[in-house]
Amino acid sequence: MAKSIRSKWRRKCRAVKRERYGAKELAQLKKTLGIDENAPTDEEMKDISEIATITDAKTIKEEKKDKDKKVGMEEDTPELEPMDEDGKRIYNKKTMKDQFGNYPVWMNKRRIVKHKKGRGKSLKSTTKANKRLTRKDKIRRKKSNNQPVQQSNVTKEV
Predict the structure, then answer these.
(1) How far is Cα 117 from Cα 111, in angstroms, rounded to an integer?
(2) Distances (CA, A) of 63 to 11, 49, 60, 70
(3) I need a labelling partner for 7 at 20 to 30 A (CA). Which of 25, 111, 119, 122 fits?
(4) Measured distance CA(32)–CA(2) in Å, rounded
(5) CB atoms < 10 A from the CB of 89, how many?
(6) What is the chain's pLDDT, residue by residue, as a tens digit (158 residues)?
(7) 3-state secondary structure string across 16-31
(8) Residue 82: half-sphere exposure toward Cβ, Cα within 13 Å
(9) Residue among 99, 96, 98, 100 nearest 115 (CA)
(10) Which pTM does this prediction carry?
């Protein structure tokens, strides 16, 4: 840092702040950890089992299997039709449209136009273009098909 009077003053003020805030921070940490003798002590922590239930992964998996078995047994009972959910929409990953032909709500107009352009390009690349064949290409195709090639008598005028 430069040695101007202003920078020296700033450095001095920062050192004073460091000392003051450092002492406050240390006192706060001690209070939080319960090391400080002067700070009021909080009530002792209650046993964690009173606050929350603790389960391990095995018991959760077993409960899930039992639940699935119960659901399997209930399937033997008369079948109920699932309720139609009005809010659910099924989107096609390729076209990004839902079952009603609408784009998602979060997709703005520019993005829709861009998506349509991109889809058009990808469709063009997958379809073969109807290209006019030149004479040479026609001859090559005939040769590849093992058909006798007829040579035309074309004279060039010079």
Answers:
(1) 10
(2) 64, 20, 5, 11
(3) 25
(4) 40
(5) 13
(6) 578 999 999 999 999 999 999 999 988 888 888 776 665 555 565 666 677 777 888 899 899 888 888 776 655 544 545 555 666 888 888 888 998 899 999 999 999 999 888 877 776 666 666 678 888 888 888 888 765 555 555 555 65
(7) HHHHHHHHHHHHHHHH
(8) 4
(9) 96
(10) 0.27
Tell me how long the chain is.
158
Domain positions in the chain are: 7-39, 90-123
CA pseudo-torsion sign 126, 131, 134, 140: positive
Secondary structure of residue 13 in the 3-state scheme: helix
Which is nearest to 102 in space by CA: 114, 87, 112? 112
Pair 105, 114: CB distance under 8 Å: no
